[in-house]
Amino acid sequence: MIELNLTSLIQLLNFLVLLFVLKKLLFDKFFDIIEERQNMIKSELTEAEKLRKEAEAYREKYRIEMENARKKSQEIIANAERQAEEIIKTAKENAQRETVRIMESAEAQIAQEKQKALKQLQATVITTAVEIAAKFLGKEMDEAMKRQYAQRILRSLGDEK
Q: Could you give the residue ranges of the DSSP H alpha helices within the chain?
């Protein structure tokens, strides 16, 4: 059985006083430190979770921006290719027009040279014909007669044309 005597009571009282003193001086501070530590850990975990969510948001934003940049660069490349094709097409068309113009110019120049050569040939033929006719007729012709005879030849050639 439990005996309650004065020593037991004093020891019990002594134990309670010691427990009270320890609680006030040691345990309260110890538990406050532990609670403070738990609160700090909770706040750090909360902050870490917040930072993790922000990092995920930034990563998603970065991924979207990269995707947009990729799309934009593909659009720029496609646009540049279309412009290059248009430039090539325009250059080909200009080259073809220039070729046609050069060919037409060359044909016109050839026609002019041909006409010029024909006139020179005609003048040479007429002069030669007048001189042959003069020798054939056995006469000497002065310049005026040669001109008259050349004009008659020209008229007769003009009628035949």
A: 6-22, 28-137, 143-160
Length of the chain: 161
Q: Residue 65: what residue type?
A: E
Those residues whose C-beta lies under 8 Å from the C-beta of residue 133, and which sit 6 or more positions away, are 149
Alpha-carbon gap, residue 22 to 29, rounded angstroms: 10
pLDDT for 111-160, tens place per residue?
999 999 988 887 888 778 777 777 766 666 677 777 777 777 777 766 55
Q: Does residue 94 come out as left (phi exceeding 0), alpha (psi in the -120 to 50 range) or beta?
A: alpha
C-alpha to C-alpha distance for 86 and 144, rounded to whole angstroms: 68
Longest dimension (CA), the chain: 189
